[in-house]
# Entry
Amino acid sequence: MDKNGGWRRGKAAFLNQLWQCTWKDAAITFGVLFIATAAAFVYYRISASNINVVMFYTLALLFISRLTSGYLPGIAAAMVSVVCVNYLFTYPYLQLDFTLDGYPVTFICMLVVSVITSASASHMKQQSRILAEREKMLAEAEKEKMRANLLRAVSHDLRTPLTTLLLYTEIVRSRKYENDAQKDDYLNKIDTKARQLKQLSDNLFEYALVTRDTVVTLDPPAYFSRIFEEPLAEMVDTLQQRGFACALDLGSEDLMLTVKMQYIRRVFDNITSNAIKYADPGREISVTFRKEEKWVGLRFANHVLPGQHREESTQVGLTSIETMMEKMNAVCRVEQGTEQFAITLLFPIT
# Structure
């Protein structure tokens, strides 16, 4: 039963492939045959010989079978090609003579070439579709895995400050502190944990907004200096107010880039927030110009605060940066060590 069912499905698929033809296929077939006939006619007028005329139509069959779907365009082209060779390039000219020696052999050979090439081209297209679908499935699976990991990490990161927040709130409410200084210390810890929760929720909200934007319209091309001048100035000002020193080396090249300024500001805000949390204020934060072949951008580097334990292990901010850079057709590279952290943003030169 299964064998018969499989045979019927195979037969149905073959018949569907055999008779499949669209207006696009018809236009391609007509166009290629017209070009082959014109080329054969020019060759015939120059050489006064019809020996290699068939080769023009054979090449035409190869192109038609490769560029169209199904077998019908190739089979039809094979028939038309044989008729054209007989009618236009074989004596008596402008007459059909099916009694010529070798005519059936020529027709059969061109038909076989058409069918074999059509079958090979169809198989290649089918394999390409299968590979494309498989790559799409793998990409979706990778995204789902990333979302699952992010959800687990976020649950952990929310639980830790919430537990601490509830603990210190209960201590203050129950007046289980020895003096006002200890009370103020508990209140400061509550404030710190609340700010951590707010930052985490802001990052999650931003990540949700970025992943929601399936189609992103980039801004018109602009010069490097115009794009980064204001965000860099705001970043340096914020860091200096927090006691950080910044060293800038922006180079002298002012190249054209195509970005989305809304994303650029978000990316810089995330990098600034990351530096305030984890960078060593006693060491400089460097911002340097980077150019790699047809890519240009900036590299941000800072020393990690000694003994610093990352409270935001989810790295939602970095995930948002990578997502926004990807949507701008740009590249984000993160170098994370025990003593130094660096992030490089590279944009294609327009």
